[in-house]
Design brief:
Chain lengths: ~500, ~160
C-alpha cells in the first residue's frame, strides 16, 4: 500500500462546501487551510479552518479563480494537498496539472481524466466506445447551418444544440424546426465562444420529458472502482438543479445495477480515480442515455452519503493520499430515502432575483433525520459576488413519503431573518401531489411552478399571515419606542428608523 | 399607543396596550392577545391568541420588513409619537440618496429631475445579475441630482439620484 504523506489540506473554495471539507479534514486529523476574498473575510469557512489566507479582491476572477494566488498560499502554508470542492477550479485541468507539477496532491481525478470528460463530443465518443448508451445525435462538430439542418432532419426534431465545452445546464438551446436551427446555431456559437472559449457546437435529439438520474462513482488510483448508487435531479429551474433525492423514485435494483455498470465502464475507460458523477437522461420507458460526467464532488453528494452511510469527502481525501479502495461493490447498500434542498438567498416572489443582505437572525432546523450543510451564521453579510447558495438542507427517512414530510417540517423550522430565501418555493413543491407521486421530469418545475402563487407554509392563509405581520410590526414598534433613551447626543437620537436608514445601502 | 399601520394600500388603525410582556392589540377594533415570550434585536417569538409565531422584524425607514414563516411583508407605521421623537416621517425627511445595491445597467428611468414623487414610487429600473429591479422612492419628495440615463452601467453603491424636499 503506497500512501503519500498528507497533513495539511488547502481548500480552494468558499461557502458551505469549504465548511464541509474543513469538517472532514478535522475528523481525519488533517490541518485545514482556508482562502478568502475581500468579501469573505468573515465567512464561516474562515472561522472554522485552522489557518486562513487572503487571496484577493471580491470578484471570483481575482480570488477563487486566481490559480497563482492559490498556489502561493499552498506554498506559504506548506499544504501538501489541494481540495477544490465543486465550481470555481474544480474541473480545470490546468489547475489540477499545476498542483501536480508542484508536488501537491490534487484531491480529484487526474488532469487527463478531467480533460477527457470536459469536452462533450470527446466524452460522447469515449462513452460510445465503452458501450454506454448515448442520447442519439452527433459525435462530431457542426460546421455550418445547412449541415446542422440536414443532421437535425435525419435525427428528427426537436433537437438540442449544445456547446461541446458547456455543461451544468449551460450552453444549450432547443430547435424545433430548420428555421430555428438556422436562427439559433450562430447564437449558441457566439455564446459558447464567449463563455467557454470554444465555439464547437453539435446537436442531439431531444428526449421528451426526461428525468435526470446520475450515478456516483468512486475509484482509487489502483484501478478499483465502485458506484454508490443513483440520485434523481429532475427538479430543475431553467436547467439548474434546485433539489435532489436518492434514490430516484423510479429506481429498481435491476435498473440501478445496469446504470451503475454503464457508469463504471465509462469511468474505467478514462482511468478514473476519486469521486465522480455520471449523469444520464432517462426516458418514460426507463431507457437511459449518457449526458455528461462531472469530474468532481457534486453539490448534491449529501443525499448519497445519507442513504449509503459513506463520507464522500473523507473518501476523496483517503483516495487522494493513495489509499486503495476499502470497499467492494457488494459492501454498498442503501437505507431509506434522502432529499436535499438548495437554500438560496433569492426572492421567489420576484423572479428569483438574488437577495443579498445581512443574516439578522438564524434558527437552523434539527431533530431526527435532518442535516444542514450550512455556510452562514447570524450576523453574516451575504454578498453579491458569488452563487447565492447559503445552505443545503437534507432530510433522511425510511421512505420517500416520510422524507418529504420531514423536509416540510424542517423547512418550517428554518428561520432566516434579514434576507429572502427560496424556502416558500420548496414548501409549495413538496406539497404538490405530482411531486409526492414522483411524477417529475426536468421540465416539471418550469412547467408547473413557473408562475404560481407561492405557498402557504401551513394552515395559515395569506390574510392571516398579513395580520400576524401587522401585529408583530406593531409590537416591535412599541418595543423600540419604549426602550430607554440611548447615550447618543440629542441630535442623533437612535430612532430605529434612522438606524435602519444608516444601515441600509438603498432606501425603500 | 395608537398608530396606523399600512400593508400595501390598506391602512389599519392599531392600538397597542402593554402590561409587562403581554400585549392587547386592537386592529381595526378587533382585539388580539399577544404574549411576547422572547425578544432580541429584531427577533420576536409571539404567542398570538396562543398560536406560536417566530417573527423577524427588521426596521427600515418608515416601518418594518417582517418575516413570518419565511414569507415577507412590508409594514409601514404611521405614528404621531415617533414623529415627535424624531422618527417616522420626520426621520425619513431630508435628502435621501437612492443607490445601486449591486453593479448593473440602467434599463429605464421612470422620473425626471425635479419631479414630485410619492413614497414608494418607482424611480429607476436597474438590471443586475440578469434580473431587473425597480428602485423606489425612500420618501415622498422631489427628485434631484438625477445623474443616470438608460443604458448606463453603474457601480455598487453609486448614487443614482436623490429624493429631497
Amino acid at each position: 500500500m503506497t500512501t503519500r504523506a498528507m497533513r495539511k489540506v488547502l481548500i480552494a473554495n468558499r461557502g458551505e462546501i469549504a465548511v464541509r471539507i474543513i469538517r472532514a479534514c478535522r475528523e481525519m486529523g488533517l490541518r485545514s487551510v482556508a482562502v478568502f476574498s475581500a468579501a469573505d473575510r468573515a465567512a464561516l469557512h474562515v472561522r472554522l479552518a485552522d489557518e486562513a489566507y487572503f487571496i484577493g479582491p471580491s470578484p471570483a476572477s481575482q480570488s477563487y479563480l486566481n490559480v497563482q494566488a492559490l498556489l502561493d498560499v499552498a506554498a506559504r502554508s506548506r499544504a501538501d494537498a489541494v481540495a477544490p470542492g465543486y465550481g470555481f477550479l474544480a474541473e480545470n485541468e490546468e489547475f489540477a496539472q499545476a498542483c501536480v507539477d508542484r508536488g501537491l496532491i490534487f484531491v480529484g481525478p487526474s488532469p487527463a481524466a478531467i480533460r477527457a470528460m470536459g469536452d462533450k463530443i470527446g466524452s460522447r465518443n469515449i462513452a460510445a466506445a465503452a458501450g454506454v448508451p448515448l442520447v442519439p445525435g452527433l459525435r462530431e462538430r457542426l460546421n455550418d447551418a445547412e449541415e446542422a439542418v440536414r443532421r437535425a432532419e435525419e435525427i428528427g426534431f426537436p433537437v438540442m444544440l449544445k456547446a461541446s465545452a458547456g455543461g451544468g445546464g449551460k450552453g444549450l438551446r432547443i430547435a424545433r424546426s430548420p428555421a430555428e436551427v438556422r436562427e439559433r446555431l450562430p447564437l449558441i456559437r457566439s455564446e459558447a465562444a464567449a463563455s467557454f472559449g470554444d465555439d464547437t457546437v453539435y446537436l442531439e435529439k431531444v428526449i421528451e420529458r426526461p428525468r435526470h438520474v446520475e450515478i456516483q462513482v468512486l475509484g482509487d488510483e489502483h484501478g478499483n472502482l465502485v458506484h454508490l448508487g443513483d440520485r434523481e435531479c429532475s427538479l430543475q429551474r431553467r436547467h439548474q438543479k434546485v433539489a435532489e433525492e436518492a434514490p430516484s423514485p423510479i429506481m429498481t435494483p435491476e435498473l440501478r445495477a445496469r446504470m451503475g455498470e454503464a457508469a463504471l465502464r465509462l469511468a474505467r475507460a478514462v482511468g478514473y480515480s476519486n469521486a465522480g458523477t455520471v449523469e444520464f437522461l432517462v426516458d418514460s420507458d426507463r431507457n437511459f442515455y449518457f449526458l455528461e460526467m462531472n469530474t468532481r464532488l457534486q453539490v448534491e453528494h449529501p443525499v448519497t452519503e445519507m442513504v449509503t452511510g459513506f463520507d464522500l469527502v473523507a473518501a476523496q481525501l483517503r483516495i487522494a493520499a493513495g489509499e486503495p479502495l476499502w470497499l467492494r461493490q457488494e459492501d454498498v447498500t442503501f437505507t431509506g430515502h434522502a432529499i436535499e434542498c438548495r437554500i438560496y438567498a433569492e426572492d421567489p416572489d420576484n423572479g428569483f432575483a438574488p437577495c443579498p443582505g445581512r443574516i439578522v437572525s438564524l434558527h437552523e432546523p434539527s431533530g431526527p433525520g435532518i442535516r444542514n450543510d450550512n455556510g452562514m451564521y447570524e450576523g453574516l453579510e451575504i454578498s453579491i459576488f458569488y452563487d447565492p447558495l447559503i445552505s443545503k438542507l437534507v432530510a433522511h427517512a425510511p421512505t420517500r413519503a416520510r422524507a418529504i414530510d420531514r423536509m416540510l417540517r424542517a423547512l418550517k423550522e428554518f428561520k432566516i431573518g434579514g434576507i429572502k430565501t427560496n424556502i416558500p418555493y420548496f414548501m409549495r413543491i413538496f406539497a404538490d401531489p405530482d411531486f409526492r407521486a414522483g411524477a417529475i421530469d426536468t421540465s416539471f418545475l418550469d412547467r408547473s411552478f413557473a408562475d404560481v402563487e407561492l405557498a402557504l407554509p401551513g394552515e395559515e392563509t395569506m390574510e392571516e399571515l398579513q395580520r400576524i405581520a401587522l401585529l408583530a410590526a406593531a409590537v416591535r414598534h412599541h418595543l423600540e419606542l419604549s426602550q430607554a433613551p440611548c447615550a447618543c447626543p440629542e441630535v442623533q437620537r437612535c430612532s430605529p428608523w434612522r438606524m435602519a436608514g444608516r444601515r441600509r445601502l438603498t432606501g425603500w | 399607543m395608537k398608530l396606523q399601520a399600512r400593508f400595501r394600500d390598506r391602512v389599519h388603525t392599531v392600538e397597542v396596550n402593554r402590561e409587562g410582556q403581554r400585549f392587547t392589540v386592537l386592529v381595526d377594533g378587533v382585539p388580539h392577545e399577544l404574549d411576547l415570550v422572547f425578544s432580541d434585536a429584531s427577533h420576536d417569538v409571539l404567542l398570538i391568541d396562543n398560536s406560536c409565531y417566530d417573527v423577524v422584524s427588521v426596521a427600515r425607514p418608515g416601518g418594518y420588513h417582517v418575516n413570518v414563516f419565511n414569507r415577507f411583508f412590508d409594514i409601514d407605521i404611521l405614528d404621531h409619537r415617533s414623529r415627535a421623537l424624531g422618527g417616522g416621517e420626520t426621520a425619513a425627511g431630508g435628502d435621501r440618496p437612492v443607490r445601486a445595491a449591486m453593479p448593473g445597467r440602467i434599463v429605464k428611468v421612470l422620473v425626471e429631475d425635479g419631479q414630485e414623487v410619492a413614497a414608494g414610487a418607482g424611480l429607476v429600473v436597474l438590471e443586475a445579475m440578469k434580473m431587473q429591479n425597480e428602485l423606489r422612492a425612500p420618501r415622498a419628495g422631489r427628485v434631484r441630482q438625477l445623474t443616470v440615463r438608460p443604458g448606463q452601467t453603474v457601480e455598487a453603491g453609486q448614487t443614482l439620484l436623490v429624493v429631497g424636499d
